[in-house]
Amino acid sequence: MKQFLIIFLLVSTSVFAQKIDYNTKKGAVANGYDVVAYFNNKAVKGNKKLATTYDGVQFRFSSPENLETFKKNPTKYVPQYGGYCAYAIGLKGEKVSINPKTFEIRDGKLYLFYNSWGTNTLDLWLKENPKKLKHKADENWQKIKHK
Q: I want to staple 115 with a disulfide (CB 3.0 to 4.6 A). Which of 25, 99, 103, 107 is the partner?
């Protein structure tokens, strides 16, 4: 019985300790772009000297003010789906890298999208019923966010 309890505790601890998989291409979330600036409808590259760690990953900012704003309420600014392409998560449940200049603020949340080789997934997201895709992306993310 004692061995069973030890094994149970080890397994349950590792399950709860799983971290969300963030898209940290170029060493930081959102390819190093300032996640606070997006809420001013701007895609601005962050500075390595103006960085902080949240949830085990690095976030970069373009100004000390944006860094402090993030620190006060990080969950407001963290991109949805770990910073992976919202359209790909919704359509196929796949983690796809993003173009940090292609984004949408919807209902106070940041969504990032793939945009390369003639495919702008933000345009597809907007054409194909974003509410339905967002709902599906929320479901899919629960299944893949720790993988």
A: 99
Q: Are residues 89 and 130 in the same domain?
A: yes
- Residue 37 burial (CB count, 10 A): 20
CA dist., res. 79 & res. 82, Å (int):
6
State the residue for tokens 């407001």: 76
Closest by Cα among 15, 23, 14 to 94:
23
Task: Note down the domain range covering 50.
Answer: 22-78
Alpha helices (H) in 17-85, listed in sequence order: 64-72, 74-77
Tens-digit pLDDT profile for residues 109-122: 999 999 998 999 99
Give tens-digit pLDDT for 63-120.
999 999 999 999 999 999 999 999 999 999 999 999 999 999 999 999 999 999 899 9
CB 118 within 8 A of CB 55: no
117 CB neighbour count, 10 Å cutoff: 6
